[in-house]
Amino acid sequence: MLWTKINHITRRAGRGFLRRPALYLVSVFTLAAAFLSFAATVTAAANLDHLLSRWLGSAEITVYLSNDVIQERMGLLASAVSDISGVAAVKTRTGREAREDLALGLGDQGDMARTLPETAFPASLDISLTQAAARDQKLRNELAQRLRRLDMVSSVETYDDWFERLSALTLVSRMAAWGLGLVALAVAILVVAAVIRTGVASRAKEIEVLRLVGATERYVRLPFLLEGILQGLIAMSLALLSLRGLTSYVEGVTGQVLPLLGSGALVRLPAIACLVLLLGSCFAGFIGALVSVGALRRA
């Protein structure tokens, strides 16, 4: 008996799709576009957070030395700095090495850099910090101030401005994701409500007959609620499949750039996040359908 009811409700919901396939296709693709915008923004925010975490985790302080510093004194300074708490490693870089690094970075134009004198490239120390120190801005600034007091030090770069800008960008991306999520939810509810309302109006005689033969209000409303849930579920599934293809395409285009940014591949939404999005789309479809079928009880 129960299986018969479930089968009948499912078939009634399916007839709703078959009667107006164009309308339902427009609804599904509209929702898919809204969901894709939201999911893509969430993915972008996740990638920015991942990059920020990696860069902070491998943060460095660059100490530029005066031109008159001899290599022996540079080695002694590097040894002393490596003993400071929070310092993981220290690498010395002479003017010649700095020039060669620039030449290699320029690729085919590297010969231009090699024509410049070594004095144009100050010797420096690249100080790698521990994970704890890298994430502690106060500790990094205190270390930088200690190094600036040394006579042989010309300047110290902590890259805090860059990290602050990137942190602000990640905050904006997260806020944009939340905003688009709310917009996508509202769009889903309104679109599903409009489509279901049209279906209710077109099946008024069927609903009247069901009531005459003793069908309960729940039995009458369930197929419409199921239609709304299916619209949301199908739309989100299409959005996630499109996002997967879009992510792979972007990864292929930027494949040579990503290693330079400290990431071998783009971060994808985990399975639990995809499941939450699918459940959320079902909820949005259910609410949209509930708004429309609510009028049935009052009719």
Report what the structure shows.
The protein has 299 residues and is of the alpha+beta class. The chain folds into two domains: 2-54 and 164-298, no CATH class; 60-158, Alpha-Beta Plaits, CATH 3.30.70.3040. The protein is built from eleven helices and four strands. Helix 1 (2-19) packs across helix 10 (217-253), helix 8 (160-202) runs antiparallel to helix 10 and helix 10 packs antiparallel against helix 11 (271-298). The model has no long low-confidence stretch (mean pLDDT 77).
Characterize the biggest β-sheet: 4 strands, antiparallel
Q: Please give the radius of gyration in angstroms.
A: 31 Å
Number of helices: 11
Which blocks of ≥5 consecutive residues have pLDDT under 50?
none
* Strand-pairing-aware structural class: alpha+beta
Question: In sequence order, what are the helices and strands, one letter per element?
Answer: HHEHEHHEHHEHHHH
Residue fraction in strands: 5-15%
Total number of beta strands = 4
Q: On the 0-100 scale, what is the average pLDDT? A: 77
Number of individual domains: 2
Helix content: over 70%
Q: State the separation between the terminal residues, measured CA to CA.
A: 29 Å
Backbone shape: elongated
Widest beta sheet: strand line-up: 2-3-1-4
